[in-house]
Amino acid sequence: MQTDRYTQLVGWLKVVLPLLALGLLSTLFLISRAIDPETAIPFADKEIQERLRDQQVTGPIYYAVTADGDQISFAADKLTTPEGMTGSNAAESVEVTMDLIGGTQVTLNALHGNFNIEQDNADLQGDVVIRTSTGYRLESERMITQMSSLDVTSPGRVQGDGPVGTLDAGAMTLSAGKQGAPAQLVFTKGVKLVYVPNIEEE
Asked: Cα–Cα 20 to 30 A to 38, which of 27, 70, 116, 144?
């Protein structure tokens, strides 16, 4: 009698278990989401190619301290190493901040830049604006600055305003003073200065 019950149980299990397995498989297929191969990767083909070709760093910051104690930082939204370039990096939305030991702060902003640590310079291009805490605001299409010393050059035209009035010059340099003297801002190549007197109201 017991043997008959065991045989019947085994027989039922042979029928029920396969049916349960089929039910589970059907459930998996029903709740699974169809995958579109065109939307499986959340990057456009162009973006993938750029990431494979270029090494990218988001939000990089580079710090340096000059021999005189001036602190310089270089920041950008994105830094890339284009194919075929060695020792040089292309940057977007560049900001350079210089905290001089004498208390003056100088900032430079540019749309693009090229950092070359081996040559110790940054070539800033595209709507370059230089501001100083002493009241100067100057614009140029290109400025070149050293990365480990206070040396900024605008090889082309620079224009803007300062404490004495409006300025227009063919070139400009900002460099450290000799033997601890204050930094020097020098304009050359046809300097035009329109003096605007500071008239204080009584």
From this structure: 27
Per-residue tokens: 91: 């940057």
Query: In this model, does residue 31 exceed pLDDT 90?
Result: no
Give this prediction's pTM: 0.69
At which residue do the structure tokens 């003056």 appear? 104
Angstrom distance (rounded) from CA 82 to CA 56: 9
Q: Are 59 and 77 in contact (CB under 8 A)?
A: yes
CA 155 to CA 152: how far, in whole Å?
10
Q: How far apart are CA 200 and CA 202, in angstroms?
A: 6
pLDDT tens, position by position, 2-27: 556 656 665 665 665 665 665 655 55
113 within 8 A of 123, measured Cβ to Cβ: yes
| CA 87 – CA 3 distance, rounded (Å) | 84
Residue of 159, 101, 97, 139 lying closest to 122 (CA atoms) = 97
The gap from C-alpha 185 to its chain's centroid, in whole angstroms, comes to 27
